[in-house]
Recover the amino acids of this structure.
RNA sequence: GGCGCGGUAACAAAGCGGUUAUGUAGGGGCCUGCAAAGCCUUUUAGGCCGGUUCGACUCCGGCCCGCGCCUCCA
């Protein structure tokens, strides 16, 4: 039985979809004005795993992740670049897709863009005004009246009085309440605008997610996710908007992933301590290393980014691929094997991927032990099981031979080592030397390759395998 | 100040009221021509102080420390 921690109740709850057999989930994506940083990628990977596992559990999953393609930061960046907004967002959407693909993140079923949903946004705002949850301020902006929604603050555990007391928001004269937020923004000259009953303007940030999720998944759906930093105010505001408009609940289960920290601080743009995926990938043997690092800890806790962590992820993956190496294709063991049961038990416990990875490591040892005992068919069967389970996390999906031929880049540029063919040739020469019991020559060849980052491993059958370090 | 999260061994990171987490790193052994890999084994744990209990890293209370949100942010 799958249990998921619900941010709304603060507890793990048995997962039961609203419509049996179907899961509708919406995840807040990113604002496209720059490259993905590690924090974004964590969110992508976390919900990619959630989606994969729900599908594995037998649900038909509809996964929506939006793209915010209009907001202040985009407008500002486009102006800085002297670039049309559409070009800027198209560029970063393409970059986002490419980065996500390299990490093995599957495309969402639907990737709505805010600018494509302006009619729905306008309809939603009209409804909110009609129901007394929104008003047109003197400034011309349309604002949400927080006081009209008594449940405001429930998700984030905040009380209105506390929020008002600590309000650092500049109190605009036109706001009835300092906590009221913008639904429709009166546009300034030169900014992108859409016509509306309240004058030319553009959507506020929060309203787009209410409009898009409702349009695509209905007024009440199963899972809504995003980074922990969206809990307040973004998700709180979404609830106020959607429930205010519909008069009934909006989302059954809220999921929030933890931050990526650097030196114990949240990775963020304002602190300047962020690393983009494009900064990191060139330092890795393969993007999978980053994915392994991300699934190596529980999604709700913080994760500490450091190069040392990536090196450890690389070593751990190396071990997994070593277990998988040179085994014939085989069918997995019949039924729910003990490892499958342990893996699923871990995942059923609020997606405990750290535990699930530990199960895979233990399974790798089982495979190694069977192989050493000469029980290749059994080892191959477990390897097949391993692949299936690891696929749910999106790790260890390469051909092992391919993995071992990849080199670990140094600082910046990849090592310029010998080609595969050159390695093979030296191995042949060494093999001849070994046959002639000329171990001095044999060892010399091995050392030459070692100096070039190639490690040789003499297998029992007289075969020599190699790997780049 | 309000709300919330966390402090586990050399580095990461989980579960669990009593039994080996797991990976990396270190020691020893087996295997190997020697290695590597693998397997076996092993050293370093649970912020501090109390309480509950036959027994607590694991439950309860207090304290200390760190972090996050309360403002755009995955």
């Amino acid at each position: 039985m799958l249990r998921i921690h619900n941010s709304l109740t603060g507890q793990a709850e048995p997962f039961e979809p609203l419509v049996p057999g179907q899961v509708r989930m919406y995840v807040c994506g990113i604002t496209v004005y720059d490259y993905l940083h590690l924090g974004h990628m964590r969110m992508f990977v976390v919900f990619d795993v959630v989606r994969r596992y729900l599908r594995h559990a037998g649900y038909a999953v509809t996964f929506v992740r939006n793209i915010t393609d209009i907001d202040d930061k985009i407008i500002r960046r486009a102006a800085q670049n002297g670039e049309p907004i559409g070009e800027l967002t198209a560029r970063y959407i393409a970059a986002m897709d490419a980065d996500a693909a390299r990490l093995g993140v599957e495309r969402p079923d639907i990737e709505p863009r805010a600018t494509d949903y302006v009619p729905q946004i306008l309809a939603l705002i009209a409804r909110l005004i009609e129901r007394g949850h929104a008003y047109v301020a003197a400034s011309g902006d349309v604002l949400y009246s927080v006081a009209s929604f008594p449940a405001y603050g429930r998700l984030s555990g905040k009380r209105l009085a506390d929020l008002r007391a600590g309000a650092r928001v500049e109190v605009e004269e036109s706001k009835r309440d300092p906590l009221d937020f913008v639904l429709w923004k009166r546009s300034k000259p030169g900014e992108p605008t859409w016509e509306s009953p309240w004058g030319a303007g553009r959507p506020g940030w929060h309203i787009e997610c209410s409009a898009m999720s409702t349009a695509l998944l209905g007024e009440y759906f199963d899972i809504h996710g995003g980074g922990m930093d969206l809990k307040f105010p973004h998700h709180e505001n979404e609830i106020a908007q959607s429930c205010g408009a519909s008069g009934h609940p909006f989302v059954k289960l809220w999921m929030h992933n933890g931050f990526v920290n650097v030196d114990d601080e949240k990775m963020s743009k304002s602190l300047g301590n962020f690393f983009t995926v494009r900064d990191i990938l060139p330092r890795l043997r393969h993007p999978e290393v980053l994915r392994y690092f991300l699934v190596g800890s529980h999604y709700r806790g913080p994760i500490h980014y450091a190069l040392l962590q990536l090196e450890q992820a690389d070593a751990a993956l190396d071990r997994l691929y070593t277990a998988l190496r040179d085994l014939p294709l085989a069918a997995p063991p019949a039924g729910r094997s003990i490892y499958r049961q342990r893996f699923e038990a871990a995942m059923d416990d609020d997606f405990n991927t750290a535990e699930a990875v530990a199960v895979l490591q233990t399974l790798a040892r089982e495979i190694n032990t069977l192989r050493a005992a000469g029980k290749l068919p059994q080892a191959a069967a477990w390897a097949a099981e391993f692949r299936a389970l690891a696929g749910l996390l999106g790790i260890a999906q390469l051909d092992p031979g391919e993995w071992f031929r990849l080199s670990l880049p140094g600082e910046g540029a990849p090592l310029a080592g010998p080609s595969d063919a050159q390695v093979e040739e030296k191995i042949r020469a060494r093999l001849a030397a070994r046959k002639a019991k000329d171990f001095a020559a044999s060892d010399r060849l091995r050392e030459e390759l070692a100096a070039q980052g190639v490690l040789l491993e003499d297998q029992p059958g007289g075969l020599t395998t190699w790997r780049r370090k």
Remarks:
- The longest strand of chain A covers residues 221-227.
